[in-house]
Specification:
Elements: H1 8-53, H2 59-71, H3 80-92, H4 95-100, H5 108-117, H6 121-134, H7 138-146, H8 149-152, E1 157-158, H9 160-163, H10 166-174, E2 180-187, H11 193-202, H12 204-211, E3 215-226, E4 229-239, E5 244-250, H13 257-273, E6 283-288, H14 293-301, E7 307-316, H15 317-320, H16 326-343, H17 349-371, H18 380-387, H19 390-399, H20 407-413
Helix pairs in contact: 1-3, 5-7, 11-12, 13-14, 16-18, 17-18, 17-19
């Protein structure tokens, strides 16, 4: 009589088969993506070479698009727009760089985002290496570019060189950043540190994304008992690459010297009570609204525990109320499509050029606001480009240097306001 084996051995064998199949599927997907990236680069290189040597004009791409689409009717990706991206891709990267930077591991849509948003070659290579190392999706990559991660990574005032071996000090420094962009947190002016902590826990996935790869969340208000007294750590993490516990202390004001002493106590307690012999020394991250470099340097000079002090930024509640919600962005996008369908303007090259100009101006406005210490939600620049005309955007850029800290009032004075509906 046939029976279905349900023993533990069968279950273990079955799980092994599932892992093997999934690994094979992932390997196949990587292989297909690699070949696609390489052929796109070769097409782009061919366009560049023939335009340079034989003087072929822009209409060559139109002809090539039509011929390839007719020859391979089941394949997508041979539009005029995509062929121009292939040309830009081949211009941006050499064949040697494709191999050295593992470019073929990244999906084509991610490469398109890099070409659109990063112009400096060294900066683009930085993001490629980070995307490969950390497995970023396209949306995560765009978020990291828009928040200028390459300028923030490895920053922060710390005493790692004095408290760690040289190689470990360098590795630890690269695991942190300054400032941390917490634009997903809504914080009123009257909020306290516990409210900030609760807001981060409510958005723990976004917070982990901002912290970066390697951070594992262990708990909030983590209890420690020392000599019969109770102490509570704001947030406790474990860093899987550093093999260290990371104690995070949240402050709603600027750094003060006494914060370093309290953090040093927490770290000593975690090393003694929580950590094992296999773990490295715990690291403290003090997140403050601001810091004076010299004050931090003096405060950490005599501290024997590894501590880093970083700023963080949140979006002021008053400003967030007037920024577009995800539903606003969808409605604006839908309105734009409906308008183009009714008028046919999208097919006009001048309109496309004007839209591109507005998008560039909107990105400059966004960059200026971010530089002033404010953070903005994803898609803000795109929504601004749809809702404001070119003249208004140019006026905003011209006057930004003269405005005070009230960005909301400044934008309102320039006619930038958002729909009242804030449903999410």
């Amino acid at each position: 009589m046939n029976t279905t084996p349900m023993s533990g051995d069968y279950r273990e064998w079955f799980e092994g088969i599932k892992r093997s199949v999934r690994e094979a599927q992932a390997q196949a997907a990587r292989s297909v993506n690699r070949e696609l990236i390489l052929i796109y680069w070769r097409i782009g290189r061919g366009i560049l070479e023939r335009q340079a040597s034989e003087g072929w004009g822009a209409r060559t791409i139109d002809r090539l698009s039509a011929d390839l689409s007719a020859t391979f009717p089941g394949m997508k990706g041979f539009s005029v727009r995509n062929l121009k991206y292939m040309k830009a891709f081949a211009s941006a990267w050499s064949e040697r760089q494709i191999v050295q930077c593992d470019l073929a591991q990244i999906p084509w849509s991610t490469h398109v985002a890099l070409l659109d948003k990063v112009r400096e070659p060294a900066e683009r290579e930085w993001y490629v290496r980070a995307a490969v190392a950390q497995g970023w999706t396209r949306n995560i990559l765009v978020h990291q570019i828009e928040t200028r991660l390459h300028e923030r990574q490895g920053k922060g005032a710390h005493n790692f060189r004095a408290t760690m071996p040289p190689e470990r000090a360098v590795l630890a420094a690269t695991a942190f950043k300054d400032p941390y962009i917490l634009d997903f947190v809504e914080l009123a002016e009257s909020a306290n540190e516990r409210r900030l902590e609760a807001a981060l826990i409510e958005r723990i996935r976004q917070f982990l994304l901002e912290l970066g790869k390697g951070f594992a969340f262990l708990g909030s208000q983590y209890h420690l008992s020392v000599d019969g007294r109770d102490y509570y750590i704001d947030l406790l993490f474990y860093h899987t690459r550093l093999h260290s516990y990371v104690v995070v202390d949240l402050k709603l004001d600027e750094f003060k010297p006494e914060y370093a002493g309290k953090m040093s106590f927490y770290l000593s307690a975690v090393d003694a009570i929580v950590a094992s012999e296999r773990d490295e020394r715990s690291i403290g991250l003090l997140l403050c609204r601001g810091k004076d470099g010299l004050v931090v340097e003096y405060a950490l000079r005599s501290i024997n525990s590894p501590i880093i002090v970083s700023n963080y930024t949140v979006l002021p509640a008053a400003l967030r109320e007037h920024l577009p919600s995800p539903s606003d962005l969808k409605r604006l996008d839908g309105s734009a499509h409906a308008m183009s369908a009714g008028t046919g303007l999208v097919a006009v090259d001048d309109t496309r050029l004007a839209a591109k100009t507005r998008a560039e101006l909107a990105r400059r406005v966004e960059a200026a606001i971010l530089a002033r210490g404010h953070s903005l939600p994803l898609g803000w620049a795109e929504a601004l480009a749809v809702s404001a005309d070119e003249v208004s955007l140019q006026a905003i850029i011209r006057d930004l240097d003269q405005t005070g800290d009230d960005i909301l009032a400044f934008l309102r004075d320039h006619g930038i306001d958002w729909p009242e509906d804030r449903s999410r």
